[in-house]
Amino acid sequence: MAKKQLIMEKALELFAKQGFEATSVQQITEYCGISKGAFYLAYKSKDELILALLDHFMEQYISDIDYTVKNTENESLLFSFYHSAFQTVQEHSNFAKLIIKEQAQTFNGDLFNKMQYYDQLLEQLIVTLIERLFGNTIIKYDLVSTIRGFMNVYTGLLLFHNIPFDIDHLSRSLSEKTKVLAEHCTIPFFTEEISMFIKKHRINKEISKGEILEILEQKIKELEASIEKESLLLLREEIINPTHHSAIIAGLLENIRSHPHCKWVAYLLRNYFGYGKN
Asked: What's the CATH fold of domain 48-200?
């Protein structure tokens, strides 16, 4: 196991028990069985480790939803969207609980900014979903808020209440509710002016070709010999010197899509190469 991955996994166990503030670097290193020097070679500080954990969770969350929104047929898109979102939260429930609790109890500017960035990526995906299913409806941004509300409320129930959860049933239920609202509501709250104001104040952080190549290089170094590593090498070469047919690129992207440490780079590359239904 790579040193960074070991630290992340062990630190998460401690954070889940004690919280961010009460957990020291010394405790993390002792729990990992490594020296402080080894820790600081991997992360400059505990705060950097916390942000890396947030990135790891949110990158998987966003990349899974992005793939679903852009590669699912319309007939099952709403169900698949909700199912993907709740499935990822359930699989990473310990960290999801932790980050929600910490946000409520403390204020960390870097953590807040990170969450704002990922929140806006999610909102853009929801807009894409709505436009695919319902066109440029006058209640588009009301639907965005409604879907976000559904996700927040039921995520809270999933994480913090002892309620038996059937994600399939929940996803079908929310799909039905969303369709009813989209097809029968005619009075929007979000006017064109409010919508323009929202767009104006979004954080627009475009990932450059150079940044994608840097992320690719880092992932290639981290992975042991595997089909995922070989696919990343070929995709890096395709960015530098485009030669492959689109079907080959699609196959390479599919090779890395499900690997937990490649989901974010797969998301970035899908957008870079223009794959998926938009």
From this structure: Tetracycline Repressor; domain 2 (1.10.357)
